[in-house]
Sequence to fold (538 residues):
Amino acid sequence: MRGFQGILASTLLVVGLTGCGRKPACPNCGTVVVAATGEPTSIFPPLAFETVGRDIGDMVYERLADLQPGRPTIDEAAYTPAMAASWERVDSVTWRFTLRPGAHWQDGRPVTPADVQYSFDVFADSVIDAIARASLVANISSVTIADSSAVLVHFTHAYSEQLFDATYHVRILPRHIWEGAGPRAQWGEDTTLARLVGSGPYRVESWQRGQSLVLRADSTVSPLPDIRRLIWRFTDDPEAAANLLLSHEGDLLETAALAGADRLATDSAYRLIPFPSANYGLLEFRISGAKSRASDAILGNRDVRRALVSAVDRTAIARGLFGPEAKVPPGPISQLLWIWSRDIQTQSYDTVAATRALDGAGWIRGKSGMRSRGGRPLRLDILVPNTSSVRRRAAEAVQAAWRLIGVDASVSLVDFPVMQQRIARGDFDTFVGAWQDEPSPRGLAEQWSRGGWDDLNYGHYANPILDSLLVAAGRTSSASEATRIYHEVLDTINADAPAMFLFAPTNIAAVSRRLMPGTINPYSWLSGLPGWKLKEEK
Fold:
């Protein structure tokens, strides 16, 4: 499920390599140090909510199968084996997954179908309240044991993303460790390292709270990764982490807005690798439902909303916030989503057209230069959390653009919890939000359909044509047909302008030339680290 982000996340990591060579007997050979801004509360997958916690957890725990980066979630060929060696469709609502022969936990115990069944139960538990719980409860009816090496995943209905729901959300957990760990409501307080046992390529060696966490390659993995030891060092200051790299004390850094990129670009010790971010930002309009707000009479008019979008140079905003690689999203999607395309119909920056549209809607400029109609001023407020400088700067740029066409715009900075409460009850004219995509575009229904009014459709936008298109997209099993339909969905949203889509950042990894990276999966950018190579030290 797409998650509303309090601040547009900029994961900032620095990796440093020891200069000890590659001799097998050297205990520190292949050590990589990761400096992260912020320490996760947990790396146990059902309880891992922070990006850095999921990054670490993905080194320790496995899914049944992995979705290849950039591939459609409805394409059955887009998945590669992980904990499961193979899978097959049994009928329209059942899949069979056969576990990898010899799969075992890092304590030596074999992985069993009972572990898989137990894992799905934990992720769907309302007490645990994992991020993907709603999708699992809505779509998966049960998981049963087929035999000594396989499980059956049963779905509530036939749909095209069954394989995605069966594999993407759930990491497999050791039942023999957690079954006796006490009430699940208390798991979040459990700091016992001995319970952090997975089946992945790295195992937890130590965790000094407030300082560092160490992973070591599982000696039973074959072949062993070049990077034998991973050390996360936790800091509160992103600039301090960036300075480690800039002072040549680190070898890799990743962020949505790379501090010091100009200096690193000219440093021969590094190369910069851009890749798309899962985030995008928007300014959403409150279209209806807040009867006490005067803005309903303004923003309920489609032509006015389109004029407000056309009046803003969104390309300048995106690049001003995130650099030249940032893009204006062609709708409410990030660059990572497989339906992204330049062919989607969007509104261009055109202040002349915006002015003409507002005149036509009866909003006329007065002597002050501001517009009014029937004595009512064209006045709008932009709600922004005071914790996000990115959103504040975006709001201020929109405010300045609107004032040039006669719109009296204000920016209200509030505490993030206050902003969440106001958005939930519809107490806003507009707000600047940041969202993070999952690989599936089905989250569009939660944000923009009539059925999403009680979910994430905070602006109460509704269009029955859009709703029918979303249903059709969810039913097709053809990736090309789904892409075509989703493009119609985005064309419809852009034509109605229930929001202004502002920025889709591009992440940047600054990589030391001593490190030879493989494929970067933008949804979990460190997940490929076990396959990365280290050059021989001289």
